[in-house]
Structures are given as C-alpha cells and as structure tokens.
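G., before I forget:
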Amino acid sequence: MKDWWGGRDLTWMLPKLFLVHFCNTSFVMEKDDELIAFLIGFLSPSRANEGYIHFAGVHPDFRGMGIGEALYDRFFGICKQNGRNIIRACTSPVNKASVDFHKKIGFEISNGNAEINGIQVTLDYNKPNDPKVLFEIEV
Amino acid sequence: MKDWWGGRDLTWMLPKLFLVHFCNTSFVMEKDDELIAFLIGFLSPSRANEGYIHFAGVHPDFRGMGIGEALYDRFFGICKQNGRNIIRACTSPVNKASVDFHKKIGFEISNGNAEINGIQVTLDYNKPNDPKVLFEIEV
C-alpha cells in the first residue's frame, strides 16, 4: 500500500480490528487478483443515525473512473438500509484531491475552529498539528 | 498520556473516531479532575455476539487497586445487556503485566501461529514484526 500514498506508511490506519469488526460495511475491489480500491466504513455504535467512512482509496492507475464514487454509493446504500442518513468522513486539508472528491459527490464541509486555504478545518484533531477537514452528507 | 507508557506516544491508538463513535461503551475514571484510568471498547458491528476492548490503562500511581478489573467488569456488563457473551482483547507479548492481568481476570489465550516465551501469539498482527497475544473470555 505504500506505493499508493506517495511512500507514506499508512498501516496504522488499518489495524486488524477494523478488518475483523467492520467487515460487513467495508469492501475491496480487485482486478486480476490485485487490490485496486477499498473502503473501510462502519455504522456508528454511539450515533444511531450515522455512518462513518474511516479510510478509502483507489490505486493511482484506476483513478478518474468513478470507482471511488461507486464504493461510497455502496456504503451509502448499506447506511440507508440500516436507518443511517448522516454519513461523516474526514481528510487532511493538504489532501486536495480528497477534499475535491468529497465536495464533488455532495459532501458538505462542517464548521471547524479555523480556516486553511479558505477551507474550514478542526485543528489538532487526532493529535497536535493534525488539522482535519470534516465532511458530512445526508443520504 | 506519554508518562503512563514508558515515554511511548500511543496517540495513534486513540484516533478521535473512537471517542466519537464508541463513547457509549467507553469510560474514563477521574480523581480530583485528573484522568487515572480509561477503557475504550465497542460492541462489534460485524460479530453480533462479541465485544472488543481496544485500549485500556490505569495510571501507574493507581495500579494494584482493582481499578482495571472494575473497568473491565463494567464493560462486560454492557456487553451482556446487549447480548454479547464473547469479549476479545489483544496485547503485545512483551507487555507481561497486561498478559498477566488478562489471565488473572479469566481471559483465555487464543491459539495463534507461533509461541513466544511459551505464550501463543499471532505474528505480524497489525503490521510486520508485530506479534500479538489474543485473548477471549465468555461472560
């Protein structure tokens, strides 16, 4: 997975527990037995009307083909079937492609506590110096 | 929290999503407004009869007083109320205190794919070179 993300090691984003306990709301897409896209999401245990997308990605060779949108659509469908009409996700403001993707498919940016490049962000989200853009959509 | 864990920064164990979406099955214990213990757990969305304890800790000054056991007991109670009779947790084999704690309160060690110091472990659990001892208990 390192190659997908500019060499960054994002293994910590996918501890085993996500794959074990969120597997009925997470999917992978394969071509010729190779992983080309994935989405890890879950129905919030604490917020009865919400779903949350933790992590999703499309291999660089397969971007721009609507695969990300298809994965999100499938997750939205599972959420709706389970009475979840608010879906949340978050991304780093430096990840412009991710910000644009979420806006394009209809997510709104939640109000934060600061602005970076004109975008509302929540500072120190997971740890100090870790601003995040928070997204929400009603489905 | 760094002081609790021999200087290791375990912020990555507690991304915000755990606090937002698992807050009805997670607790903190405070004394004079200071955090002295916590447990982050959730009812597995994918495994209808299971609960999972992701992360728990007791401040070194307050260990040996039964606080950890009390937090686990409370989580077990919530699990039982919600029809979850299998609870799982995991720890690193080098964390002997954690291994001993789980055994003491009745957890069994699940079969793994290797043995370290006579204890069954699952190798490369979250990433390469990351063996884990997997625990389970019926409540």
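The CA atoms of residues 28 and 38 of chain B lie 4 Å apart. The first strand of chain B starts at residue 26 and ends at 31.

More on Monday.
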